[in-house]
Each structure stands twice: as structure tokens, then as C-alpha cells.
Amino acid sequence: MKLHLTVDRDGEDFEVIADVEYHRAYRGQRDSCGGVRGAGPPLEPDEPAGFEIGSVTDGDGNAIDVDKKLEERIYEEANEQMENEKENQY
Q1: What are the structural domain ranges in the chain?
Q2: Which of 54, 66, 70, 82 is the most buried (most CB within 10 A)?
């Protein structure tokens, strides 16, 4: 998904466009137990859901460096957008 944010940099509003990819939770492979596939102990760990930030550019398409503050803002905005999409599905 593309996120369009306006952030404050040195007292000025600054447009930021971030490509963010959502990864849904993934259940790791399980061993069998009593002949039932997948009912036994884990063979690989579960992967939690999360976001991965791809490219981040300014309004003109120039790549920008992402500091910790901007990274947190992108994750907050992505979480908020996902919550809004969930609410609008029903």
C-alpha cells in the first residue's frame, strides 16, 4: 500500500510517500501427533503479522532517509489504515 503523510521537518510541512507491504501472520509447520498432521510440536516458528517499509520518497519522488521518528510514524499510519479497512469490510 502507498501511504501519503505530511510530517514536520525543520518547521515546515514535508510530504512523504511510503510503500508499505503487509505480511499476515503465518503459522509455522507442525509435526504430527497421534497420526493427526499438524497437531504436534512446532517444526518451525510462527511468524507474526507485520509491516515492511519499502521505498520512502518526498513529494517529488526523491528518495529520503528514514529516521526512527519517521519510521514510527509510518508504522502508526499503516496500522491505522489497516484498522480502518477492517472496520469498512463489515
Answers
A1: 2-89
A2: 70
